Amino acid sequence: MANPFKTLFTKNAQLNSDQLILKKTFIAFFFFFVFAGAAFWGWKWLRSQSSVSGKTSAPYGKS
Amino acid sequence: MKKKEIVKKHPLAIRWFHWINFPVLGIMIWSGLLIYWANDVYKIGFGSTTLLKFFPDTFYKALNVPFRLSEGMAYHFVFMWLFFLNGIAYVIYTAVSGEWRLLMPNRRSFKEAWQVLLHDLHLSKTTPPVTGKYNAAQRIAYTAIIFMGIGSILTGLAIYKPVQLGWVCSLFGGYKMARIIHFALTIGYVLFFLVHLFQVILAGWNNFQAMITGFEVKKISDEKPADGPIN
Among A32-41, A46-55, B14-23, B183-192, where is mean pLDDT lowest? Predict the structure, then answer.
């Protein structure tokens, strides 16, 4: 299997179909997991905020 | 010698709506269960005979449901906005982009959906026709799910504010009926999800990854290129 990092910054015109598919797949999955992770950890962070300050109430923050 | 080619399938907006809806609907069903536990009156049966109780105590205990009503309500009333806004955005997008043409069933769809069902259950060897992106069964299911979403929001509002939105409540035949419909629609989502998951597994990786990458990989022979290659 080809190394996706090798072709990640190569222009599309220089790639064959296999390399192009690999590149596009890698980029799509990368951003998918970045956004999914951001949503998950963002929610975890929000939930960890104390409600003592009176600014974050349940279910956003700890009740 | 076969070549691989990229064929566009799902636009970016559709993928966003789909992957936002997936966890949001999951949270709505889970938090709805926490609320439902406090007054779990529904069952399937006749007279004093109960065939299926929604839900048995073992089910609640296994999912750590009991005594979490307020938590369930808090989650439900937060995520309903996301569910509502995502649904509205999806409907507007499909209407404006013309995607609705690929989704709406036509007059042949119901007959063809039966062929799809028989084919998928391995009861028929006739390959059902696929016109456009979705087959007839998918068209019916994906259109029905939009109406189910509208139904869930309206019945949800009816049981959330039965006094202020009394007219919505009476539209569904009163509070009790609105609650039954809201519950039945939720069961419908769970069944839809199970069938959807099964179909995705059957269709394979190429189909699944298209909901993340937006494209499918088609194998074509050198002599006859496929229509619409997108590089």
Answer: A46-55
Which among B4, B19, B213 is the nearest to A17, CB-wise? Answer: B4
Answer yes or no: do A29 and B212 touch at CB < 8 A.
Answer: yes
Per-residue DSSP letters for B20-85?
A: HHHHHHHHHHHHHHHHHGGG---EEEETTEEEEES--HHHHHHTT-TT-HHHHHHHHHHHHHHHHH
Task: Please report the pLDDT score of residue B189 as a whole number.
Answer: 96
Interface probe with A: pick from B3, B5, B231, most Cβ of A within 10 Å: B231
- Asked whether B196 and B134 are in contact (CB, 8 A), the reply is no
φ, ψ (nearest 5 deg) of residue B51: -85, -45
pLDDT value of residue B117: 87
**Rounded to an integer, what distance in angstroms lies between the CA atom of residue B99 and that of residue B119?**
26
pLDDT tens by residue, B35-88: 999 999 999 998 889 899 999 999 999 999 999 999 999 999 999 999 999 999
Domain boundary assignment for chain A: 1-5+14-63
Cβ of B209 within 8 Å of Cβ of A25? The answer is yes
Q: Give yes or no for B209 touching A (CB within 8 A).
A: yes
Domains present along chain B, CATH in parentheses:
2-32+71-221 (1.20.950.20)
Q: Is the dihedral of CA B216, B140, B101, B126 positive or negative?
A: positive
Q: Is A43 on the interface with B (CB under 8 A)?
A: no
Q: Provide ipTM, 2 decimals.
A: 0.79
CB distance B213–A60 less than 8 Å?
A: no
Average model confidence (pLDDT) for chain B?
A: 91
Chain A residues whose CB is inside 8 A of the B6 CB are: 17, 20-21, 24
pLDDT band at residue B133 using 50, 70 and 90 as cut-offs? confident
